[in-house]
User: What shape does this take?
Amino acid sequence: MKEQLEIYELNGTFIGNQDRGEFYNEVKKEFNENGTVSKKVKTIRILLMNSLGRIYLQKRSESKEENANLYDKTVGGHVVAGNTFGLTVIKECAEELGFPATVLSEEEFSQSITSIDLKIIGILKKVDYISNFESTRVLRNGNNFVQPYMTEIYIGYYDGAIRFADGESCGVETFSIDQLKKDIENNPAKFTEDLKYMARKYSDILIPINTI
Assistant: This one.
């Protein structure tokens, strides 16, 4: 069955459900013709760390149509029609990264990360909601495509093994936030615009557990 997404106008008005492929064909055509996009969908973006505060980054596969060979956030995903943001986070961790996870409130998160075995389960929390997150994607022809999203941002901790299940990634590396910010400054072309934004905006909370 084709993946159905909820489609919204930029002001948040719900339009209806649409096949994911059809949606992107339409908005990319619109962007090529007008330089802007008039519709958006729901997504999630995750920065995952180990307990030492080292951030797991994926290096996107050379075969990807967008942002090929660039270092990116740990994982991102579309919210399928009828699903919530939180459920999408749990599904992405299980299906794309290969481990069970839970999304907790701020208070529960702070208690859990020091009392639960993070080799067994990932603990995440929501840190932001952005109603028009403009994601700049580098296409294979070198042009940029800018798509607005209704997106929730999550961070979390996990000390177990990670596997990227669908071939989107050709590797994973870990960075401390200080290392990442320095590398972005020195080699900005290595990283996606999503990751640059997230590293800049959320740097104060991308820290080892023992410093919280």
